[in-house]
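Usage

Read records sequentially. Each one opens with the input sequence:
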Amino acid sequence: MKHSSVFPSILTLALIAVVFTGCSRDPNVRKQKFLASGQRYFAEGKYPEAAIQFSNAIDLDPGFAEAHYQLAQTELKLRAWNLALQELNRTIELQPQNYAAHIGLAKMLISGREFKLAQEQVDLLLAKQPDDPQVHLVAADLLAAQQKIAGAIQETQKAISLAPQSSESYLSLALLQTQTRQPETAEASFNKAIQMNPNSAGAYLALGTYDASRSRFADAERQFRQALAVEPKNPQPREALANLYLEQKKNSEAEEVLKQAKGDLADNPDAYRMLGDFYFATGQLDKALDEYAALAHDHPADWQVKKNYTQLLILKSRLEEARQLDDEILKSFPNDSEGLIYRAQIQNRTGHPGDAVTTLQTVIRNDPDNALAHYHMGLAFQQLGSADRAQSEWQEAIRLRPDLSDARRSLANLALSRGDMPTLEQTASQMIKQQPNSADGYVIRALSFTRRGQFASAAQDVDKAISLAPQDPAGYIQMGNLKLAQKQYGDAQKAYQQALDHNPASGDALAGLMTTYLTQQQADKAVAAANAQIAKVPGNSNFYDLLGTALFFNKKDLDGAEAAFTKAIELDKNNASAALKLGQVQVAKGSIPDAIATYQRALKDNPREVTFYILIGELYDQQHDAANAKQSYQKALELDSNNALASNNLAYLLLQNGGDVDQALSLAQTARHGAPNSPGFADTLGWALYHKGYYQQSIDLFQQALQLAAKSNRPDNANFHYHLGLAYEKAGKPEQAKKELQRVLQINPNYSNAADVKKALTELHS
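and closes with the structure output:
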């Protein structure tokens, strides 16, 4: 009996195992498990994890329409607009009757201003679902986006007639009525929305936002607090309240609200991230970094925390830590656009812009409309020396995201570097049009007016910038620039000091203040100003750079300058400006080997800084070390093949040391093309042509070199006359040759080739 009772139980267990194993291998069962898991993650706000689960379901069944639709909703949460669009289209292909997908697709097309395609979706929805109030609301959205407000109101009223108890429809109506400047009617609609659903935070938030737009801050606060009362677990009312305080410059109150949110909603990602985001938005990067470090420790599974923390580490130049975190992100999500953009930023900042281009090409291939990818692509091309391609990428970024101010600033900086003030003004005006309540555009336009002497227009823009952002140092800095250009030194000093009062770490403000003193030949005051700010912000590398600059160029204090530049580099190894000037100080002290060593150390931290290779080449040249000089110039050209100075210097070096004349000629032509107004580059090209035997052409270039030097008020150059004299001699023009060679000795009796000059003159007289 015992044996008979045991055996069936074993058989039963075996049968159960077979059944469950079969279920676990059934693709239909597995895909439903992935779908359910994704839905749980989505409900918890864990969108990257949800996306993985929905994708797993699709891998098992590419025709699983529900998984495609859920993945679309997840990509929307992740702001992966292009991927969401793809998934909505795929959902509709598989399930044409999924009208919710049609509505979602229409909304996305409207947001992307693809009005023709959106109209096709709306027409289909109106034909198939004429009694669905959501269809009429999306039709209203399309009309409103086309500024057809009357028609949008009609469609919204149809939605209300179909669902008279819908709070959402009254909210939509209220927002449209605000656009038609019907404040009383709009307010009534907001209140009707609240009446329809007094337990929904959305209506209170909308009315509070409306009150805030009319500067009724007390009323707005009351609405936001009511929203919080009805939905205490919803982070949006707290966010709205914090933003309201920020608008009133009540930063400490905003901070307290967000600290409370973090404590009350400790398990809600949207809530506990808000404090760190607040610190970031208000420019408190150190606090933001500390906050996100704590969040990364407390919430190691929150990928958005990892991403935000990575971006902050990049901004603080803690690149190795950022790289490690980003590798974690990309290991789990290899095609994550944000993770790839972080990788590209790190590559750009570590001197590998070519690698950054490759990384960003992957992002753009997967998501062509990713404006941030185009922006960072522009930065990479800028590092590679391709200003035109950089400009094109920034313009594309702005086309995709007109509010992307960083791209507009980059275009403004490019125009400024080119001295193109009309383009700078145009770019700034576009910024103002896009963000009329932001000070940035006014500051930049004021700069363009100041540079062209249009002081009245500049003053208007500066005043506007300061009124919009009275705590921002930028407006005061530009005021200082304007007053300095007008030689109103006292007012300039006051404006720069105001900027420093608002931001004691502002390098631009200190530079402006010191320039004002130096312009008045008050070097001691400039040095004192630098030391005063260093005492307030002792870890600022730029301040030591500015101090060293004044000590070196104005006080001729070589030891003091050397100490200041050394400290600047110690504080920031990427401060290429300080390293460059430290080498200059060492040369001035007679220690060329120390200067070469300084530049070589700087290259370890700034491997793509072409200037250091050129400077090393020039120093080796001074030491008559042609081999090392040549190698340095070649390295510079490997990084920037069209660099005019490196091309010129290498060309001259080859000509002086019996190198390849054809290569020298090609390099000299590159240099001349890059800097057509340089007298030295004209001389080098003429010298190359002389060595090729093209004497008349070389004469023309030597004459141009002398003319260009005279136009720029440079001292008469013995070298140019020497070369011209030799060319005249070869061209069979002895009298002109004598005149030029005699001029060489008049300019500099101790000219390095004086013996050759005298010999040539003797031969010409014989």
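Summary fields computed downstream for this record:
- The first helix runs from residue 2 to 25.
- Residues 1-23 have pLDDT under 50 and may be disordered.
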